[in-house]
Design brief:
Elements lengths: L15 H16 L4 H7 L4 E10 L6 E10 L7 E8 L4 H18 L4 E8 L7 H14 L9 E5 L5 H15 L20 H10 L2 H7 L8 E5 L3 H12 L3 E7 L2 E4 L6 H11 L9 E3 L1 H4 L6 E4 L18 E3 L8 H10 L2 E3 L1 H4 L2 H15 L5 H26 L3 H20 L4
Parallel strand pairs: 3-4, 3-5, 6-7, 6-10, 10-11, 11-12
Antiparallel strand pairs: 1-2, 2-4, 7-8, 8-9
The protein binds nicotinamide-adenine-dinucleotide (NAD).
Nicotinamide-adenine-dinucleotide binds next to helix 8 and strand 7.
């Protein structure tokens, strides 16, 4: 029996992540003296769809029913955009929180989207490929009137990948009667996906490193980088760091951590992980206590795994000069304060990991025009957008005498507010 009425018996909106997202918005709205009417309007999502639906297990007689969600936080800026997450504990509150964060992220880097997010409460690792396909196609049908290339464009997130996006695109296209690649991003390139999407978040993140280094008067060449998480974001961030001359002295994943003061050969470690799944037991580095990676003596720390890892328990020990947030929400509010006091320069998730949605935006534009760019063009435009957003946020931080997270949110919220005021209230 897969149908559960809520994730932890607290009611659908009772997600700590939603309260945190709203509290963060309230805090910044207070600092910027945001108009009360606009403030209230943006505290809750504009549209939220909750569905339940059945899917057949491989054992034909068994049918499981699960909850699915799609939340669109804000329609002011254009269509909405955001990933779909398959996870055992996803609920409406979590999806709503992530949709709100997507609104700010898109506004910070200047993309013409509002934020959205979707989810299905299911444990993806317990599904066979065929079950995942049936689940995806039925979920797509349940939300089909809610999404579309000019309405709401999903993308992969935790527990979903290129293949899931391909099934979603195929189901949507079959339903509308023609091929519609622009309904989803993060697809395989063979059906209109973008080259360089896989590398986009890590590359985009690291394209900021030279600007951060210059702001802190640090060299790029030879700077020491520690990366927590060696998945999509961590691998390409580490690779880009090494390619620009930094020394990637430590990396970790769920299996453990590695250290090499001369720098780990990232491309070689990536090949090792393809074969061995995890980094542990890689020969050309020493083992390290995973917790120590976060407090290592280095110039740049890149949390690129899970949320809440930099917190009241370890923030005082962080020795990195800068933290570049690859993951969503790796730093708690308490750690933020410690970093502010200790002068640790933090580039927040809503800016630092926006490279993923930026290249997704490129993919959508290319699909709509049926004109595909080269990898070099994509990378150049990604760098330009990321670095422009970084300097605007840095200027705001200096002008408003605040930290980069607050400055980024001020910038995003201000952009949306201007659009809301220009459009007015209907009727
Ligand atoms: P992924 O599943 O590809 O990789 C996650 C990595 O983190 C894996 O190597 C895993 O072993 C490791 N990990 C898990 N728990 C860990 C722990 N406790 N300590 C150390 N390592 C641990 O995921 P991803 O796509 O790389 O996403 C990582 C983070 O970046 C997530 O917070 C995600 O929301 C965020 N993010 C991803 C993208 C994207 O384009 N993939 C975009 C924006 C934000």
């Amino acid at each position: 029996m897969a149908l559960e009425t809520d994730s932890e018996g607290q009611g659908e909106w009772g997600s700590p992540l939603f309260y945190e997202a709203v509290a963060q918005f309230d805090r910044v709205a207070g600092i910027m003296n945001l108009d009360d009417n606009i403030h209230e309007r943006m505290r809750a999502p504009q549209r939220a769809l909750v569905v339940t639906f059945p899917f057949r297990r491989d054992e034909y007689e068994t049918v499981d029913t699960v909850f699915g969600y799609r939340v669109q936080h804000l329609h002011t800026m254009g269509p909405t955009k955001g990933g779909i997450r398959y996870a055992a504990d996803v609920n409406l509150g979590e999806v709503a929180a992530l949709a709100m964060l997507m609104t700010w992220k898109c506004a910070i880097v200047g993309l013409p989207f509002g934020g959205a997010k979707g989810g299905v409460r299911v444990e993806p690792t317990e599904l066979s490929r065929a079950e995942t396909q049936r689940l995806t196609r039925r979920y797509t049908m349940e939300i089909i009137n809610f999404i579309g290339p000019d309405k709401d464009i999903p993308a992969p997130d935790m527990g979903t990948d290129e293949q899931v996006m391909a099934w979603l695109m195929d189901t949507y296209s079959t339903h509308v009667g023609h091929t519609e690649p622009a309904v989803v991003t993060g697809k395989p390139p063979s059906i209109g996906g973008s080259v360089a999407r896989r590398e986009a978040t890590g590359r985009g993140l690291m394209s900021l490193l030279p600007s951060v280094a210059s702001h802190l008067s640090l060299p790029v060449e030879g700077s020491r980088v520690a990366v927590q998480g060696f998945g999509n974001v961590g691998q390409y961030a580490a690779l880009a760091a090494q390619q620009m001359g930094c020394k990637v002295v430590a990396v970790s994943d769920v299996s453990g951590a590695l250290y090499n003061e001369d720098g780990i050969d990232v491309a070689d470690l990536m090949r090792y992980v393809v074969e061995n799944k995890v980094v542990t037991d890689y020969r050309d580095a020493d083992k390290l206590d995973p917790a120590e990676l976060l407090t290592l003596d280095c110039e740049f720390l890149v949390p690129a795994a899970v949320g809440g890892v930099l917190n009241a328990g370890n923030a005082e020990q962080v020795k990195a000069r800068a933290v570049l947030e690859g993951a969503n929400g790796p730093t708690t509010g308490a750690a933020d304060e410690v970093f502010r006091e200790n002068g640790v320069f933090l580039v927040p998730d809503v800016l630092a990991n926006a490279g993923g949605v930026t290249v997704s935006y490129f993919e959508w534009v290319q699909d709509l025009q049926n004109y595909f760019w080269s990898e070099a063009e994509i990378v150049a435009r990604l760098r330009e957008i990321m670095n422009r957003a970084f300097s605007e946020v840095l200027d705001t931080a200096i002008r408003e005498k605040t930290d980069m997270r607050t400055a980024a949110l001020i910038k995003g919220i201000r952009r949306v507010t201007e659009a809301k005021l220009a459009r007015g209230v209907y009727p």
